[in-house]
Design goal:
- The protein has 279 residues and is an alpha/beta fold.
- It contains four helices and eleven strands; from the N terminus they run βββββαββαββαβαβ.
- The strands form two sheets. It has a six-stranded antiparallel barrel.
- Helix 3 (223-231) runs parallel beside helix 4 (246-258).
- The two termini are 34 Å apart.
């Protein structure tokens, strides 16, 4: 597959041949930045959280299950972190007068229009995906943030990224930042999908190596991604970032610790069978 710049995405690991029966899959696209114990990415200082009212200004269906929302407000600049893959908490109003909040990667920010862009992975069983699929232009919500993603900073000599569809917005943001970086460090990414129709054209450095893993219907989510954590050829000084189903993240954390990466952030964004997962 080719990128936008015409370069070819390289497969750098083999696809696992074994599979595990899948649990009920109800992922939530929630990039909470909770670093794994042990080796971890260098912490960035937290800014004070900023809460802002926003309204939906535009909607785009990017792929079969990924919806992009543009949210406009007043003075949103303080709610945007300058680190790649940073996130905000989105709060949506519920019918009983309460609100429901989930964390989402900031995919873009237009300071002139005062608009933040987020991508929401749509799935059955989640409160926020249901709201996102039903909201319309002018629908009100609230955001709070910002928070950093946990991706290692520029001191890392190389990056290894592992993500499923719920973490695809964060990986896309990191790859975009790397494509505009001057240091040109090696970047390898493995991305697992449950549906090939959710594959996206990503902006990435020409030297980056990307592999897409599409799991079988009877395969547990994260199986192939966790295997990639064992199999990927890691260069010295590599910082690893893993975000996917919680059980897969636990397995990957063990695997990557054993490989002595320079920094590690492994996060469960969702848990199979749980609609509104809280890690």
């Amino acid at each position: 597959m080719t990128r936008k710049d015409g370069s070819v995405m390289t497969d750098f690991l083999s696809t696992p041949t074994t599979s595990t029966p899948a649990a009920s899959e109800q992922p939530v696209s929630a990039p909470a930045a909770s670093a794994a114990p042990g080796a971890r990415a260098a912490r960035q200082p937290r800014r004070p959280a900023v809460a802002r009212d926003v309204v939906v200004t535009a909607r785009e269906q990017l792929t079969e299950h990924m919806l992009r929302l543009h949210l406009g407000g007043d003075d949103l600049t303080p709610a945007v972190h300058d680190s790649p893959g940073s996130w905000v908490k989105l709060f949506a109003p519920l019918g009983d007068g309460s609100e429901h909040g989930r964390a989402y990667t900031v995919r873009g920010f237009d300071p002139l229009r005062d608009e933040i862009t987020i991508d929401v992975f749509l799935h059955a069983g989640g409160t926020m995906p249901h709201w996102a699929s039903e909201c319309r232009i002018g629908s009100g919500a609230r955001i709070a943030g910002p928070r950093a993603s946990g991706v290692a900073g520029r001191r890392a000599e190389a990056l290894a990224l592992f993500a499923d569809e719920t973490a695809l917005p964060a990986v896309a943001a990191v790859l975009e930042r790397e494509s505009h970086s001057r240091h040109g460090r090696p970047v390898r990414a493995a991305i697992e999908l449950g549906d090939a129709r959710d594959r996206q054209e990503l902006e990435a450095p020409t030297h980056a190596e990307l592999v897409w893993l599409v799991r079988a219907p009877d395969e547990a989510p994260g199986t192939r991604l966790a295997a990639a954590a064992h199999l990927m050829d890691l260069l010295p000084g590599t910082a690893a970032w893993f975000a996917a189903e919680a059980s897969a993240a636990k397995e990957a954390r063990r695997a990557l610790r054993a490989r002595e990466v320079s920094a590690l952030h492994a996060q469960g964004y969702w848990r199979a069978g749980v609609g509104d997962y809280r890690d």
